[in-house]
Amino acid sequence: MAVATFFPSQTSYKNRHYLSRDIQFRSPLRLSTPRSILSTIRASSALVLESDSGIQQDQNLKIDVFSCPVCFEPLLRKGPPGFNLPAIYRSGFKCRRCNKSYTSKNIFLDLTVTSGMKEYVEVKPGGTELFRSPLVSYLYERGWRQNFNQSGFPGLDEEFKMAMEYFKSVEGGLLVDASCGSGLFSRKFAKSGSFAGVIALDFSENMLLQCYDFIKKDATLLNSNLALVRADISRLPFSSGSVDAVHAGAALHCWPSPSNAIAEITRIMRSGGVFVGTTFLRYTSSTLWYLRFLREQRGFQPYGYLTEEEIEELCKSCGLINYSSKVQRSFIMFSAQKP
């Protein structure tokens, strides 16, 4: 087994690329030049991929930042270079280990385990399935998200500003906007120019299509380092230690298993990576006693609302450190870092 070791010229996030510094590839590799930006390396004279039988593979293949959701092997990519929507749309992706192929024929790149299946249909809990609805996806930025202000959410611009404060130490890196919805924050992160790449990731096909509808109206976004990816938050399609920042806006309460999701987020982040999330709290110290009693009946709640203490414990139990939070009525923004 060959080992490809990459050495960045500097240790700051602004000069890091996206493959971890020590990645062991299953197929024998011969590497003669440094890695290129966005973890895509041309398999030409710089990189030769060979199968176990020693047969050389297609010279147009590249090792991509995305990984197979089945075995977490970095995907091989065939197509034009670039980390923008047009380039990814015209590319094909394949796992060299399980031989599973992935495409972006629906504008977004589907990196779920069920990608390409025709018979099997997986149904998630109601809190997740609701956002797969075309109507909810359409309304999300047309009144739905604005109603969050009544619960203490400070508004998109202020939330974005608060998140960017937490992300200062990882500017210049790769950011995943998990459960991005219609991409309202993904677009802000991409337009900020603070990150080398932004991945708008959601399980809802219709949310991603709605996100694309907004993106295609802005030529600067269409050709920016922004990708649309469908993925399961509990099985993220990235190699361990390959992501610098993860954002999850108003999402934690919708996840089927917050513990599995945060464990996955921890897995994919580099050392020093930052996770920032917002959600609704189940109750706070100022919640009236009878409302607190009702909200404790969690089996009757449509979403998995947590307390501030539960969120902090979840992050710490997954190995994250430097936890901090800001609370305003039922709104909480929290942040934690991978050691």
TrEMBL record:
GO biological process, alphabetically ordered: methylation
Domain Methyltransferase type: 176-276
Cellular component, GO annotation: plastoglobule
Entry's Gene Ontology molecular function annotations: methyltransferase activity; S-adenosylmethionine-dependent methyltransferase activity
One Pfam family in the UniProt entry: Methyltransf_11
UniProt keyword annotations, A-Z: Chloroplast, Methyltransferase, Plastid, Transferase, Transit peptide
Keyword Kinase on entry: no
InterPro entries, alphabetized: Methyltransf_11, SAM-dependent_MTases_sf
Cell location: Plastid, Chloroplast, Plastoglobule
Similarity section: Belongs to the methyltransferase superfamily.
Protein name: Methyltransferase type 11 domain-containing protein
Species per Swiss-Prot/TrEMBL record: Cucumis sativus
